[in-house]
Amino acid sequence: MGFSGIGIWQLLIILAIVILIFGTKRLPGAAKDLGSAITNFREGMKRDNGETTKIEENKDEDAK
């Protein structure tokens, strides 16, 4: 059993359906776009967490 109850056979069927829908020529581009989106999301989360920390530090300094 794999991710959340999905087995290898279900994953293979989903992969086959995706290949039928999008074709093999567009899959690498779609995977690259998905990877870029995930990378940008992670960078944004890191930036957001850094800004939140800086804001909290400024509030602490102002309170003193």
Taken from the alpha-carbon principal axes, the silhouette is elongated
Let me know the largest β-sheet: none
Mean pLDDT comes to 79
The tally of strands reads 0
The share of residues in extended strands comes to under 5%
The topology string of helices and strands comes to: HH
Write down the domain tally. 1
C-alpha Rg (nearest Å): 21 Å
How many angstroms does the end-to-end distance come to?
Answer: 56 Å
Helix content: over 70%
Instruction: Count every helix, treating DSSP H or I runs of 4 or more residues as helices.
Output: 2
Organism: Candidatus Paraluminiphilus aquimaris
Keywords: Cell membrane, Membrane, Protein transport, Translocation, Transmembrane, Transmembrane helix, Transport
Function: Part of the twin-arginine translocation (Tat) system that transports large folded proteins containing a characteristic twin-arginine motif in their signal peptide across membranes. TatA could form the protein-conducting channel of the Tat system.
Family: Belongs to the TatA/E family.
